[in-house]
Amino acid sequence: MRVLLVEDDEMIGRSLKQALEGAGWSADWVRDGELAQSALGDGGYTCVLLDLGLPRQDGTEVLRRARERGDATPVLVLTARDGLDDRIHSLDLGADDYLLKPFEFRELLARMRAVVRRRDGAAHSLVGGGALQLDLTTREVVVNGAREALTAREFALLHALLERPGAILSREQLENRIYGWGEEVTSNAIDVLIHGMRRKLGADSIRNVRGLGWRVAA
Ligand code: CA
Looking at the DSSP assignment, which residues form a beta bridge with residue 202? Predict the structure, then answer.
């Protein structure tokens, strides 16, 4: 799954990007509000980590414009500002949660899972329904009650498909949900991923719709 990291502090940004990637996220890092705005416009993010004090455009402005455009990507505000007004303002603008710096990375990951899960409409860590469910905490898939471990990319792919079961996602849409900037994507990367997942989950788990893309059963 991809996360957009918006942070102008070099040290915090670098260590967060590294830690997020270590935790299986693809992290795209931008250092100012205008770049954040254009990255969000490209879409594909599961979640945004947003600093408020940013050059060129304040974090609250990034958030306000994104919500105005109808962008519903979960946003977790990361801020050193201890002002209550800032926090209330960002929540009112549509932030899903906030975390005050400094914070423990484990707590950040837990809050990211929580905002993603709420967006998915799940009250607990399992998302999806029917034969396939994803456990956001363990990154496992639950197939008819049995658990299987997934790689970070397999997990991201299945999460994208399970968001709207029955809907067809194209190769480009899937690539956009899985790979961050600068990650090399071979032309058959998606096919290889899906081939591996069908071996784990059953041949019918992910259906190919010729010429259009892939879907999971509704
Ligand atoms: Ca800042």
Answer: none
CA 87–ligand 1 middle distance (angstroms) = 15
Domain ranges of the chain: 2-119, 126-215
Neighbours of ion ligand 1 (CB under 5 A): 8, 51, 53
If you measure from the C-alpha of residue 83 to the centroid of ligand 1, how many angstroms do you get, rounded to a whole number? 14
Residue pair 26/156 in contact (Cβ under 8 Å)? The answer is yes
Q: Structure tokens of 50?
A: 């947003």
- For all residues of the chain together, what is the average pLDDT? 92
pTM, rounded to two decimals: 0.88
**Top CATH class, 2-119:** alpha beta
DSSP result, 108-147? HHHHHHHHHHHHTT-SSSEE--TTEEEETTTTEEEETTEE
**What CATH number has the domain spanning 126-215?**
1.10.10.10
Q: How far is the CA of 86 from the centre of ligand 1 (A)?
A: 13
CB atoms within 10 A of CB 9: 16
Average pLDDT for 143-155: 90
